[in-house]
Specification:
Intracellular proteinase inhibitor BsuPI domain-containing protein, Intracell_prot_inh_BsuPI, 4-stranded antiparallel β-sheet, 177 residues, globular, signal, 20% helix, 2 helices, IPI
Length: 177
């Protein structure tokens, strides 16, 4: 019984000590505010919304269509001599949408899929390319003109956060006759 009580008391003390891990000692409120401002400035400098970090990555979308299928090929070419490391915040590396002539979205690649929640990294060596491909079944679509938008969903490039993907292209396709 004494052993059980000792184990219980030690467990409670351990858990109580774990709860104190974030306490800072020896810092004043002014120092905390200054440190927070510096951290926020560093984070803002790392965020990119379309300029600089990916100047040497070229994005191209090509489609190939048969009567029943549309193949969408997204190519990201690294024109630099240095490797580029892309990080994706989930297993979803791209999004494809089809919009009809009335402006209604009639297809979304991710609509009926589940993706892993894990950081996934792809390295594109200098002078090489990353090719992502998806096949869309066309038998559910009415004949007509559609806008296809293909986006590579990148979270970071070379550890620099991307707030808006620069790798998006829209092409017009004709389904049926």
């Amino acid at each position: 019984m004494k052993k059980l009580a000792s184990v219980f008391i030690l467990t409670v003390c351990f858990l109580a000590a774990c709860g104190l891990g974030d306490t800072q000692t020896g810092s004043s409120p002014e120092e905390d505010e200054i440190n927070e401002e510096v951290n926020n400035e560093e984070e803002n400098n790392e965020e990119v919304n379309g300029e600089g970090v990916f100047d040497e990555l070229e994005y191209k979308v090509e489609t190939n269509q048969t009567d029943s299928e549309l193949t969408v090929e997204m190519t990201l070419t690294n024109t630099s001599t240095e490797s580029a490391m892309l990080s994706f915040s989930s297993g979803q590396k791209y999004e494809i949408t089809l919009t009809n002539a009335a402006g209604e979205e009639v297809y979304r690649y991710s609509a009926d899929k589940m993706f892993t929640m894990a950081i996934i990294q792809e390295v594109i060596p200098g002078g090489e390319e990353l090719i992502l491909s998806e096949t869309v079944q066309l038998d559910e679509f009415e004949p007509g003109e559609y806008e296809l938008t293909a986006t590579i969903i990148v979270y970071t490039i070379n550890d620099t956060e991307i707030t808006q993907s620069p790798f998006e292209e829209t092409v017009t396709i004709q389904i049926g006759s």
